[in-house]
């Protein structure tokens, strides 16, 4: 029988690979990819960043153009919010209407640490459950930021008119979902994604009516225009006329959804093919954990007789 002490001496306790995903940019080696993580403790990173970031004068916002590609929950929310802030927004949609975005397919609900059930929920618990549910592959600083703003997102959705389920007394209802130990999921029957999208769509239409957002439907992004290492515009195809069009801006936001159709079996829409992400990749953007995408159990083929 081998001596345990000798075995302990044979084991190399040094890590094989160190994960730099959550290390501040100022502490990274030169050869490492910089993920722009703010400095400080994880619970204070984004608060400190917001307190020291450069701001744009309201009068100057009218002189800045921003392109938002995509009109799902992320794209419509970003376009309407930037328009309300005073920027000139150009919003592009591959479908014939923003309401065709695949965000409509979400059903389960949306999580936030409101702790309405008084069962011990908190921002940290939501953060930890999200990181754990992501197989510890998520970028922790960004997940904590998500947990922080989740409460405000629920408030924003309610103000937009999203008809979340409510208790008999009128308070927003919560249910346990996704293996969480607390009830933190806000939902609207089995139509949560559809109702959220209608709320974002209404907010987007409001900014279109005010003139801060210009909507371009039936446009497919073909390429990203880079100037001095920054995205300054896009090349699109008009899917109605076939014409190639170009648009310039001071910044470009890609909110083009997932890539579930790259798998042979998928419940995602045909437009979820990752074509926009590929264009960003060709221009130097980094992609990671590409296998970490949504696979519905309904797509798993049946094997055997049982």
List keywords for this structure.
alpha/beta; disordered N terminus; 306 residues; three-stranded antiparallel sheet; 9 strands; 15% strand; four-stranded parallel sheet
Oligomer: single chain
Query: Which term fits the overall shape?
Result: globular
Counted beta strands: 9
Percent of sequence in beta strands: 5-15%
- The computed structural class is alpha/beta
Q: Name the strands of the widest sheet in spatial order.
A: 5-2-1-9
Q: Distance between the terminal alpha carbons, to the nearest Å?
A: 45 Å
What's the alpha carbon Rg, rounded to whole Å? 22 Å
Helix/strand order = HHHEHEEHHEHEEEEEH
Helix fraction by DSSP (H/I, runs of at least 4): 25-40%
Any overview of this molecule?
- There is one protein chain.
- The protein is of the alpha/beta class and 306 residues long.
- Helices cover 29% and strands 15% of the residues.
- Strand 7 and strand 8 form a beta hairpin.
- Helix 4 packs parallel to helix 7 and helix 5 crosses helix 6.
- The N terminus is likely disordered.
Summarize the topology.
Blueprint: H1 4-10, H2 45-52, H3 58-61, E1 65-69, H4 73-85, E2 88-92, E3 110-111, H5 123-133, H6 140-159, E4 185-186, H7 192-210, E5 213-216, E6 219-227, E7 230-238, E8 244-248, E9 251-254, H8 275-282
Parallel strand pairs: 1-2, 1-9, 2-5
Antiparallel strand pairs: 3-4, 6-7, 7-8
Helix pairs in contact: 4-7, 5-6
Q: Summarize this, please?
A:
The chain has helices at residues 4-10, 45-52, 58-61, 73-85, 123-133, 140-159, 192-210, 275-282, and strands spanning 65-69, 88-92, 110-111, 185-186, 213-216, 219-227, 230-238, 244-248, 251-254.
């Amino acid at each position: 029988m081998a001596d345990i002490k000798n075995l302990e001496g044979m084991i190399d306790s040094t890590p094989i690979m160190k994960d730099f995903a959550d290390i501040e940019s100022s502490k990274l080696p030169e050869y490492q990819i910089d993920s722009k993580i703010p400095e400080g403790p994880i619970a204070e990173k984004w608060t400190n960043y917001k307190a020291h970031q450069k701001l744009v004068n309201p009068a100057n916002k009218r002189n800045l153009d921003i392109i938002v590609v995509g009109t799902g929950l992320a794209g419509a929310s970003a376009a309407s919010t930037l328009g309300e802030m005073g920027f000139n927004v150009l919003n592009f949609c591959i479908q014939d209407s923003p309401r065709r975005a695949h965000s409509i397919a979400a059903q389960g609900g949306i999580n936030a640490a409101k702790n309405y059930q008084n069962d011990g929920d908190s921002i940290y618990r939501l953060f930890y459950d999200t990181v754990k549910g992501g197989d510890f592959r998520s970028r922790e600083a960004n997940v904590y930021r998500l947990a922080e703003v989740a409460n405000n997102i629920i408030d924003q959705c309610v103000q937009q008119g999203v008809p979340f389920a409510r208790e008999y007394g009128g308070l927003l209802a919560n249910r346990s979902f996704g293996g969480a130990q607390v009830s933190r999921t806000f939902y609207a029957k089995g139509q949560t994604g559809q109702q959220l999208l209608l709320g974002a769509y209404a907010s987007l239409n409001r900014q279109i009516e005010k003139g801060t957002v210009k909507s371009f439907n039936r446009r497919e992004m073909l390429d990203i225009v880079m100037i001095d290492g920054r995205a300054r515009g896009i090349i699109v195809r008009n899917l109605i006329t076939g014409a190639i069009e170009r648009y310039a801006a001071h910044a470009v936001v890609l909110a083009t959804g997932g890539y579930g159709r790259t798998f042979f079996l998928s419940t995602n829409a045909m437009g979820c093919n990752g074509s926009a992400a590929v264009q960003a990749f060709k221009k130097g953007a980094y992609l990671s954990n590409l296998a970490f995408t949504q696979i519905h159990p309904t797509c798993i083929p049946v094997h055997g007789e049982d």
